[in-house]
Amino acid sequence: METGRGSLVPRDVETPKEMQLRVTPSEVKFLDTLAGRVYRLPITVHNLGRCNQKIRFQEPVKPQFKLVLTNLDKALASGLQMTAIVEYHPDKDEDTFDQLLISIGNKTIEIPLIGLIPSCQLEIESEVNFGTLVANSKVYCKEIIIINHGRVPGIFKTEYQGQLPIVIFPTDGVVEPKSSVVVKVDFCADQPRIVNEVAIVSLQDRPNILLSVKAHVVEQIIELLNMSSDEKLECIHFGSVFFGASKIERALLYNNSPEPINWVAIIQDDSVGEELGTNIQQRTDVVLNNLTYLRKIKKIDVATFISCVPNEGRLLPYQKAVIKFCFSPKLIVDGKKNSDPSHRQDYAVFLRFESVGSKDGFLRDDINKTIKSDRCQKLELALTGSGLPVLLQFDTGRVLNFAPCFMGECSEIQCIMQNQSKALPVTYHFQKTANFKIDPKRGRIDEGCSQNVTCSFIPHQVGVFKVKQLLEIIGLVADENLKSSMKPFHQIYLHFNSVCKPSTKKVVMKINPGISPLVSNPTGQFVIKDLAKYKDCLPVAVLQSAMTHIHDHRSSKKAMKDALIAFPNDRIASIRSGEQDKHFRTIFTKIPRYNYVDPDFAYTELENIEKKAHDDYYTRYIKCLRNVRLRKQAEREYMYSYNDIDIGLQPGSGLKSPSLSEGEIEEDLSSVERRIKPKELLSTRHIASKETKSLKRKVLKGIKSDPSTPREKHDCSLILTPKQIHQVIVGPSVLNFGDVCVNSTNTHLLHVVNMLSIHVLIQLDVNLEELRKTNQFSYVIPPTASTYISVKFESATMGKFWKSFTFTVNNIPSGHILVMAVVLPVRLELSSNELVLRAQGFLVKTCFRGTVRLYNRQNYFAQFEWQPVNKGRGMAFSIRPAKGTVEPFSSLECEVTWQPGFNAPEKGEFTLHVNEGNTQTLKCVAHFAHTKVVFFEPRILFNNSPQGLTTWRKAILHNVGQNHAYFKVCDQSLLSTINIVPSQGIIPLGGLTVLNISCTPTVAEKFDTRAKVAIHRANVIDLRIGGSIEVADVEIDPDVFNFSGTYIGSTQIIPFLVKNKGMTRARVEFNLEYSEEFSMDFKDKSGEFTDPAFPNIYALELEEKTSLECGIAFSPTEVATHAFSIQVRINFFEASKLYTQYCLSNSPMIPKTVPLIRPCYVQAAVLQAPVRLSSTDFIFEIPVHTMDPKKKVTKTQDLILHNTSKKAVAWTLDISNTGKLFRDGTFKFSVLKGVLQAHEECNVSISFCPNHPRKYTANIPIRLNDNPVCYRILCLVGEVKSPKLLFNPPFIFFTPVPLDVTTVMDISILPQNYFRDSTLTIQIPTARLSDGDEIHPLSVTLPKGRVIRGSPDGINTELICQLSFKSSKPVSFIANVLFCDSRNKWFSLPVTATAENCILTIYPYMATHLDKQKIILKADRDASPVKTRDTVVLSCREAELPSPIRTKFGGAEPARKKLFVGNKKAMNKTMNLPLVLSGSSALGVLSSDLEQRFLNVFGSWHS
């Protein structure tokens, strides 16, 4: 039966074990859930009991979880299990928690239900262990991985706050879902220590994790141990050793570090405490007196008597190697006897074992203060020993005279050998000598002992004997490999003298059975007896018979040239088989002897051929080997004598080889120097000398990156030993760039010294992104040379930088370089965060100014920009430059200016933004001081002001205080008709400010008001304004205009008068907008006002009680009649319209409040023109060259009058107002009047006959039918065309230039009216200096020539003139350059120019040539240069800058400075201009007449 779902009853919660029930899983967790989706997970219940159990499920409380089960009560048999489904329906993206209760009776189990939204699950290793490291300043890197197991990106951040050289990168980042990020931990093993540091790692959605960084840093120690025990060995005592002998000691070299090490042994022959050949048992005064010997021992090469094998090598971690030390003292002769017992030489030297790698030496980096450990580990060993001479004494002396004896007898001498050395025994050996015998032949004599020796003379021949008996001293002698053996090392010679007397015994002749080639005397004595000694030798034929002539009785003519002699007793040899190619003959008769050839033993012909082939083969083989050996030797000699510059090319086509510089000539090194001796022991003195030699030969450019020549390729392919690598210095070992800016390029020099006599290839194994801008990483260093490598560092990541890179020498790892830097962001510092501006000087607008300095203390330029902070009231402060760049390790001053004003805010802020850097705020405050202002006149009157017009008055504010004042007009109390400008402003200290007050009244009345002016930080002052308004009273007489009978094309003017009868000004306007054929003409144009927008409205102004003559003109264009009224406006009032309205209203007379005037009435009738003229303009032109004083030239034109009407017309030419033009005959009409009938024409001749060459003009009216109105006007123009020159530009103004600078200006010469060719001549003026001297600063050139080409029409081609100005002395002048043509007619061109070194005068030139000029400012006293902000190069010489104002305060003269503009030249006499005009002209002092001419020419331009 199913039961309903009830509420949970609190029960005791039991564990599944106690209830005999197992629930899987123990918690239901939904991961990475999203809202709106459905998730299901199973839950299994297993009955572990022995009986059936009734299980009841209770649904979760939260609606997001749902138990999918048909029946909540289940009966579960023993051992069985059931499965239920839990559904999760998230409705929000948030974590949800609930529980599922499973009950059995009164016992309940809680199953947690968890719904989790997607999240990141970051995981990281908690420890980084570098293990055991060596303190060699190398950077070691370990990588740890941050893994994100979640489905959402996770953020991580690392931070290390310790002081050890540990760098973690990246410090922060994002790990994408189901991915990982590698974090690198760099550690620099700089000194021995135990590292156990902690870094904080922050992972998203997880508590902070402590990352442990561990390392054990130990020293790289080289130890020398005793052979018998493991005790450290600090000194080896060789004891006493005979000169020439050797003594060998052994020791163990131990690498007590976890890394392999390359080592080399070096003799310290320049250390303190060494002794070389000094007898320490002698007194000091005795030693010092022997100066010759002291000089000798200073030049001793220690390596000649101290050797070490091996003296270089490589030791693996904790490896031991046996080292042999050999002491072989050499005797240094000091002029004394070598057998002197006091001739003792004591030695004490020091041997150093060093690790091979990058070395600092003289290149030590002084910036590096943190690296304290010595990376090149050193071990010092003391070696002591004494060299003793062999002191062997003979009691008989070294010359022994034996008693004479006969052959076969013996003579003896007994002598005693004594070893006088008390330290060493002597082992001797006598060499065998003929006729002498010594007994004992060899032996040993202990220290201080003696030996009896018997010397015997046993002669074997007759004669006198003087021989040297060699006595060898035997001892241990070491070879090159320190292999010792007993060898003679010392020799002593004994001189033996004796005589062997001849014997008187009779010699018995013995028979010689045959002639033998071994006969030694003619008597044949001892022949038979001695023959037995040579029984092994057969008497064969050995001589060439052709050369023997003994017993030549019967010489055969056919004797063989190559025959051999056959002796009579050579039968034994003659019966053996002979050779076929050999022939024999007898010794005396030269008869050929039979030569027996045994066919069984002789070579056959084929065998002879094979034998000869074999002989030829080996001959060729040996010859080939010899040729190969000679070729290799030649190649070796060519390779070592190879020249990198001269490669043997023959110059062609006239080419010449370039001359070699001293640095390019490589020294020729012999093959002995190039061959490195493998057993040679290095010494500090030798290394120092080679290092000095290499440093003197610097190679700064042209270093190759790869070997190219055969010699370079051979040298760079050699495998160098540690001893050779030790002679290649690469340092400093630490490149400390210090504090650098992000993205800045920094350079540090890495020095390379090659002390070897071969090329070496240096390769930097750099894979650092920060060093990518280094030019190259491979260098071929020449022999015995030095250079430096510019290592460039640039990083885009801020923080500490510790990295190292290795380098190789000839592809052999030879060390590493540590790169250190602290990368900082770009930063600017302010000299002050708050700037108070106070009034300075007398300038009104810029008196409130101050400066703030920007400091860039870093090595990268900083780009900045100022941004004003607007807080609502506006911004009155300005700063310049508003943006710019501050160079590294420099500063820039910015000027802050406050724009003063009454309402200007006194406080402001600027924000300094540094590009990719910091941000700072600058607060600015303007500090005011109290002041006082008064009005010159406290009252302003507007008496009789015109109604409708604006009347202006002036009020003057006077600042009587001690500071500038700022005012504002309070307009609340002013009338609407009153306006004051400016409404606010500045009153300078002790100065005046004018207030313009305008009054524009609309009502005629009297008024009185007050204007209040507020002074900033002072009181408010009042200005009283009053006055009266008057109505304008204007009269026009006449006001009716009747144009009766005006012809078409003619103009008729009717005059009238405008009167101002009132007490104030009046403005009168005539509106002719709709009457375009009518216009107004005013006699006095000064009072006329025109508006281009309304050309047909004419206005004029009249002062009170004045009048103006005017006229209305009518110029009809067609036949018509006109009748209209002209509306007149007075003071912008419609006076005519108001007058008409007033007349039509018929109202009683009231006081006049506005101006009134009657409208002007116009009537006009237009008539058709009765007469047509051929022309009204007549122009006469006569060339000047055609005029003749004796015969006048006349030009004539015709005027045709045609009557187009049907009536007769009377016409008249009015010449009454033409003056003398017609009386003297200049102009002449053939007829002055006449009558034209209907349709009749009349021809009037007009003549022009000038008396003088100039232009004549006349206007002649034509009147018809006695009508006073002018019908037409004839315009007569007569001109005698005279040649003239025009200039473009009409005047020349040279920009002021420095001294010795040439400036050129092009001028266009425009000839006119030149009908014939003419040649120009030019007169160039001089310039007068202030001391009276005259110079010629101007020069003229005409590129197109000086000839003006004439033309029939008088139109000529222009000429180009180039005018140049240059002066070496200060000058300022104005003059005229005169041009004269062939007719001696002069034309002038005004020129003004200035040359000066005053910077104010030549400022326009400097501004134009800013990028080409340079300014050098020097003080008079110390002549120290003062740099200017911009560089301007001006070629001028020195000039002083005088003060323009002479002060009366004190007698001290201000320090003057000298200005050099351009090339610095000596100046004989310094000149100052007497006057410097303000502005850019700087014309100097001008004479009155020249100045007046200058003003006339330039006119308004000068003003």
Set out the fold topology:
Layout: E1 12-13, E2 21-24, E3 28-30, E4 39-47, E5 53-58, E6 65-68, E7 73-76, E8 81-88, E9 96-104, E10 107-115, E11 122-124, E12 127-134, E13 138-148, E14 154-159, E15 166-169, E16 172-175, E17 179-189, E18 193-203, E19 209-218, E20 221-225, E21 235-242, E22 247-256, E23 261-268, E24 275-278, H1 284-289, H2 291-298, E25 306-309, E26 312-315, E27 320-327, E28 345-355, E29 378-388, E30 392-394, E31 399-401, E32 405-406, E33 411-419, E34 426-430, E35 436-439, E36 442-445, E37 450-457, E38 463-478, E39 484-501, H3 527-531, E40 564-566, H4 571-574, E41 584-586, E42 592-593, H5 605-640, H6 671-674, E43 682-683, H7 684-696, H8 710-716, H9 722-725, E44 728-731, E45 734-741, E46 746-754, E47 760-765, E48 778-781, E49 785-793, E50 799-809, E51 812-824, E52 829-830, E53 834-838, E54 849-856, E55 862-869, E56 877-880, E57 883-886, E58 890-898, E59 907-914, E60 919-927, E61 933-935, E62 939-946, E63 951-959, E64 965-970, E65 978-981, E66 984-987, E67 992-999, E68 1006-1015, E69 1020-1030, E70 1034-1037, E71 1040-1047, ...
Parallel strand pairs: 1-10, 3-10, 12-19, 21-29, 23-43, 31-39, 32-39, 40-41, 45-51, 53-60, 62-69, 71-80, 82-89, 91-101
Antiparallel strand pairs: 2-4, 4-8, 5-7, 5-9, 6-8, 9-10, 11-13, 13-17, 14-16, 14-18, 15-17, 18-19, 20-22, 22-27, 23-26, 23-28, 24-28, 25-27, 28-29, 30-33, 33-37, 34-36, 34-38, 35-37, 38-39, 41-42, 44-46, 46-49, 47-48, 47-50, 50-51, 52-54, 54-58, 55-57, 55-59, 56-58, 59-60, 61-63, 63-67, 64-66, ...
